[in-house]
Amino acid sequence: MDFNRAIKNLNRSLSKKQPLTFNQSWVKNRVRKTYNYITKYIKTELGETDWDSVICRLDHQHQKLWLKGVKVKAKASHYENSKEVETILTKYQEKLYSFLVQLDKEDKKFCDLISIKLVRVAQKGNLLAKARALDLIKQLVDQWIDNRNLKNWRGYDDLIEANIERCIRRYRYSGSFLVYLYRTLEYAGRGLRSLEVFSLDDFMPMTAKRRSDNLVYDSETGEARFYGS
What pLDDT, on the 0 to 100 scale, is given for residue 228? Predict the structure, then answer.
């Protein structure tokens, strides 16, 4: 058996039995040879069974059933293990630039892959993995704010971080982690008003004057505002 055969067997079994949900136990009990192959040969950098690599290869209708409706285990205890983080980052060192710029589909694929690797370790309770994931993903979100339809998030750094943390905590398997995060920010950002930071030395586009020239003081309210606002 090889990986392609294992995926084919699992897809066929899911199509035939049509479970409402499935997990590792379901695979073990119903497709034992495939389960044995996956748990022996399909491993993460940390030596654990890499179910993410398996699920992403299944037919789309089957991906959606993975762990759906299954009760999540109790919250993992926190710990710090730099070796777990470095093992992942060292393997993908040459692709870390993808959090700053994505030149093609391969860059997007690796950016998502690295994110998922760090997210899974963070979900185990590794605080260093969570911190590194936050650091890298925030750089990507900054690019989305500048270049995609998330401009209304500008200035909400604390709220952005809170949403990233929430996605890290809640992500099970829903396809791409980055698509999941982007959709979360897209929906959560509706109604936000951009808090874009500017300098009083900047020129106003309509008047060709500096912003400071249009700043007036309202003696009644004690507030400063721009003339005409």
Answer: 45
pLDDT band at 174 (very low <50, low <70, confident <90, very high): low
Q: What are the tens digits of pLDDT across the range 46-83?
A: 999 999 999 989 998 998 898 854 454 556 689 999 99
Q: What pairs with residue 145 in β-bridges?
A: none
Q: Which string of DSSP letters, residue by residue, matches 25-52?
A: HHHHHH-HHHHHHHHHH-B-TTSSB-HH
- Measured between its terminal Cα atoms, the distance across the chain in Å is 70
- Classify residue 191 as left (phi > 0), alpha (psi -120 to 50) or beta: left
The domain locations on the chain are 3-63, 82-188, 198-229
Looking at residue 38, its amino acid is I
| pTM assigned to the model | 0.75
Q: Which of 28, 40, 49 is nearest to 1 (CA)?
A: 40
- With 0-12 / 13-18 / 19 or more C-beta atoms within 10 angstroms meaning exposed / middle / buried, residue 158 is exposed
User: Residue 189: pLDDT above 60?
Assistant: yes
3-class SS of residue 218: strand
Q: Which of 33, 29, 30, 31 is nearest to 1 (CA)?
A: 33
163: pLDDT strictly greater than 70: yes
3 state SS of 226? strand
d(C-alpha 78, C-alpha 179), whole Å = 27
Alpha helices (runs of H) in the chain, residue ranges in sequence order: 3-17, 24-30, 32-41, 51-55, 60-63, 82-91, 105-123, 127-147, 157-170, 177-188
- 115-144 per-position pLDDT tens digit: 999 999 999 999 999 999 999 999 999 999
